[in-house]
Amino acid sequence: MAKAKTTAAERPAKAASGEASGLYPSFDIDNPELPKEIKARALKSGGYPYDAKLKRTPYEEQLHRLQLELIKLQDHVEAESERIVVIFEGRDTSGKGGCISRILARLNPRHSRSVALSKPTEAERGQWYFQRYVAHLPTKGDIVLFDRSWYNRAGVERVMGFCSEDETARFLRDAPEFEALLIRDNIRFFKIYLTVGREMQLKRFHERRHDPFKKWKVTDIDLAAISRYDDYSRAEADMLRFTHTAASPWAVINANDQRRARLEAMRVLLSALDYAGKDADAIGAIDPKLTEGGADYLARTTGTDGKA
């Protein structure tokens, strides 16, 4: 009898955590001491453009202004019976949950919510792939933020061997068509992708492992992902190449500094929408050093033109 294929997530966690990459073969997530070279390179990894993180005082001042604008936006969405969907994707530890929680923090929870689905049930695995996500789309007057979405298929499912290459190819073909249906039904639809450098990701994995308040965030999938940074990079490139479209573009945010990334995510959303009392000065400008379109990011990081 042929031996069943072992997925990346099923490999021993200790072995996976010890293979951070060829650059850091000695990295051990269970060692309370983070290697000094990782710590020193973390913030600037992945080409991050700033030498220091945003200070707390200017961050909180900007956050307050942007959250006030989000309240205005929500009032408009309710009054005009609009529907907004924002999906957050990105590498593990990129800060998706943090962005979502700051966006929702001051909003009316009756008309705004986060969706973070667990792995599909046996029944859901037998359904049309997009089916379980459709059930969570907003009704009129509501805002829904997806903490990971149907793009699991192009990322973690592909890299960890939970779907076939044929299933991935079908998804990359079908996702733009599915999103076009949402847009034609007058859903205001946004896609935000958060990326972090290799050393910053290792630093955050390490912090989670040794912080008693964050240890629950470290799963076997996370441990397996530590050694798969380059695999995720290839999956990321394919995802952007096939699903960044004129109707449904990606906004890619460098999230090495979580504070700046949270503010940028809010600005991406607020800048694109009109609503009563909008204060452009309070919103500020999107930082081109941190945020770029999916095609531009792909061209810069892979040297391709971003076309499928």
Brief overview, please?
This protein has 14 helices and 6 strands.
| Unreliable spans | 1-6, 8-18
Secondary-structure-based class equals alpha/beta
Measured by DSSP, the beta-strand proportion falls in 5-15%
Largest sheet: 6 strands, mixed
The N- and C-terminal alpha carbons lie at a distance of 40 Å
Described by its quaternary structure, the protein is single chain
- Mind telling me the C-alpha Rg? 20 Å
Basic shape: globular
Mean pLDDT: 92
Strand order within the widest beta sheet? 2-3-1-4-5-6
Strand runs, count = 6
So how many helices? Answer: 14
Give the helix level as a range of percent: 40-55%
Order of SSEs, N→C? HHHEHEHHEHHEHHHEHHEH
